[in-house]
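#structure-requests
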Amino acid sequence: MKASEIRQLTEEELNTKLNDLKTELFNLRFQLASNQVANPMRISAVKKDIARVKTVMRANELGRNA
């Protein structure tokens, strides 16, 4: 997901997206531990998406439209 797409989401949508991404990351780590993960690169992509969402949420808190 691109940062420009994330910036267009509302605060409620950002919270929902963050929870979904954290759940997906948990499931991917569980699959990795049991050697069933289909695409290991997805783990790093999800981590980056989580960071993007948190960055936009923090910018909104500070009153910036970063």
